[in-house]
Amino acid sequence: MDQSTEPPNVDANFAVLEQVGELIRSGFADRHNHPFADDFVFHFFNSQQPDLDGDYHGFDGIAELFERLGELRPVPSATTKVSSQ
Question: Could you tell me which residues are beta bridge partners of residue 81?
């Protein structure tokens, strides 16, 4: 199989996601051990949170985004009464 047509390595992708998850859980404490390239850009859009829309660059940008996400208060979009009890 031609290398350019091979499917992505799923295990490697999960390993990166696990590393990002640990970084988030640690509050971005280890700024020297992360999977983001210096020129990494994360484009964020959420119609319910337009103040957060934008481009977040590199490690500092991702840390800023998650810091801002952590400051949000959850707002229920819908409530449904299930029981009178």
Answer: none
Contacts of 77 (CB under 8 A, 6+ apart): 48
pTM for this structure? 0.65
- Residue 32 CA to residue 19 CA, distance in Å, equals 12
Domain assignments of the chain as residue spans, ordered by start: 36-73
The string of pLDDT tens digits covering residues 54-79 is 999 999 999 999 899 888 877 666 66
Q: For residues 41 and 60, give the distance between their C-alpha atoms in angstroms, rounded to a whole number.
A: 11
Rounded to whole angstroms, how far apart are CA atoms 18 and 22?
6
CB 36 within 8 A of CB 59: yes
pLDDT digits (tens, 9 = 90+) for 15-34: 888 988 998 889 888 888 88
